[in-house]
Amino acid sequence: MISSDLKYPNSQKKLLLDISMLRSIMFLLFYLMVSACTDQSTYIENLFEARHYEEIIDLYNAAPEEYEDSPKGLAFVAKAYFRLRDYDNAVKFYDKAIDLDPYEPMYYSDKGLLYHKIGDFNKAIMLCDRAIELNSNYPPAYINKSAAYIGMKKWDWALEELFHVMKMEVSDEDKAYAYANLSTVYCNAGDYEKAFSNASKAIELNEEILWAYKNRAFIYMVGNEGAKAMIDIDSGLELEHNDPDLLMYKGIVLIRLHNEVEIGCIYFRDALEGLKKRGDDRLEGQISIFERYCK
User: Fold this and answer.
1) What tens digit of pLDDT does each residue of 120-157 get?
2) Is residue 227 within 8 Å of residue 233, measured between CB atoms?
3) What is the pTM of this model?
4) For residues 248 and 265, is the Cβ–Cβ distance under 8 A?
5) Residue from 108, 177, 119 nearest 146 by CA
6) CA distances (Å), 51 to each of 109, 169, 273, in order?
């Protein structure tokens, strides 16, 4: 009797292809079943809130024709790519959403935040301004514009945008991001009392804002409160486990405040690698600190 492996020398490859195809079919069937009971964009929004970003992209790839008249659905695909740091595809899908609905401020504002992450702050501001032209009462546009100004180190201009937001009627989510950005501005200005207060308000409203934990951890470190700093550092690393700033903070706390040099240097080395990958201009200065403690 001939074994299946001899009869089908590519059986393993065929099995993998069959599994991949079956997975796509299952996603499509599940999507069709659920979409019969609920709105498409609502279902995708639920997936996004559950952080199932790959599933959102799989659903699109399984049935792209379902999105031809759904700018909101395309925007969630863009958001999924954004969260996965695939910025090229994120831009492409935001453009698709804007082509279908050029009068929705959210798409321009979200695309502005994307360009802030890329480091093109002028493009980010231009997109946020377009969102504000369409709706002057859309808080995220001002918040994302303030983030671009923070990236440019134009602190006063960032404050102007954020103070404007605080005069508006905003959701707790928007208010949390505004507080987080305020904490960043005050932290860089050396006003640690205001920075700490705003970071704490942001975390109270939304426990998933990474830079609020960064700012508060930094302030704890300045005050030599290593144990409290470590709590915020670990909370932030749960959200973004490779964040170079938090890895660096953890290394510094372990070295300076806990005298755990060997472990601290491991975190510090990982942080430097992260700074190098993103071309951070702080790399050279941090290398000198690393060499001081981790010879």
Assistant:
1) 999 999 999 999 999 999 999 999 999 999 999 999 99
2) no
3) 0.81
4) no
5) 177
6) 21, 28, 27
